[in-house]
């Protein structure tokens, strides 16, 4: 209760611009994944009305919502980051990105930047991490021992954990595995051990937007960029596979959209999910910026290939903490103040 009151007071103070004054030259870039109108059973889906309320807040207070071109002028040409500025991205390329998320941004004439899995838009596959959730939701088995790609045995116990908890655990276990053949592994090991029939087509809730819809997004002022071909984690792949994921996703996006989409987002995006080989491959391919998923602000002078993004919170107070730069002040105080960390509202 006390913590909640402190957070609300901190956000009211943030309305004055104090935190932006104390922590200038910081740009919050937000990352979305799924956006749904009405109720949804999809884990982590953001209600469209919540997104709409965030954008209404920004519009009513004259915030600048930056495009990729705006960001490039900041990073490469030294333009100042406007005090009241923010940026939005959305990853993967599902149907709701076009049908729902883009429509909400269009209401405010704000740009949204889409990172698309080209194999998904080509309907060749749907993301391995979503397939884990799907399989666990559809199994009637409460316990199974599965063999990970490395050969290590892993116990799935749905009697002890919820589907959401177990899906997160399995995904995390697979993030450190070699992923070259992960889609074969899903079919021959995970679905089989869980007694779930492998879908012959992409399930409706995971269907992609089309390339025609991606072209429509571009025509409406949004950005569309590659997010690999298959969403496999680059750090787990061979040099040859890294090259293919980066260059083929660039080729497909360029071919379909008719321009050079020279910005990239790393799959899952933790610091351990990509390496210096991947960054060099991006540079050779002609990319000029790349985003990870480290929760931090973008600043001038930083590495163009390790740009941070905040996951867009479903909680308004947390959203305001980030937008009004209280989060930047909070981080600074955590690392520099002799006062206990608990003296300040946490994330």
Describe the 3D structure:
The chain has 347 residues and is α/β, with parallel strands linked by helices. The protein has a domain at 128-194. 44% of the residues lie in helices and 13% in strands. The protein is built from 14 helices and twelve strands. The chain has helices at 2-14, 18-22, 48-60, 68-77, 95-108, 118-121, 128-138, 163-175, 182-194, 211-219, 239-257, 276-285, 316-323, 326-336, and strands spanning 29-32, 35-36, 46-47, 64-65, 85-92, 113-116, 143-147, 153-157, 223-226, 263-265, 289-291, 310-311. The strands form four sheets. Strands 1, 4, 5, 6, 9 and 12 form a six-stranded parallel sheet that branches. A two-stranded parallel ribbon has the order 2-3. Strand 7 and strand 8 (153-157) form a beta hairpin. Helix 7 packs antiparallel against helix 8 (163-175) and helix 11 (239-257) packs parallel to helix 12. The longest helix is centred in the last third of the chain and has 19 residues, at 239-257. It starts with a helix and ends in an 11-residue tail after the last helix. Keywords: Signal. It comes from Marinobacter lipolyticus SM19.
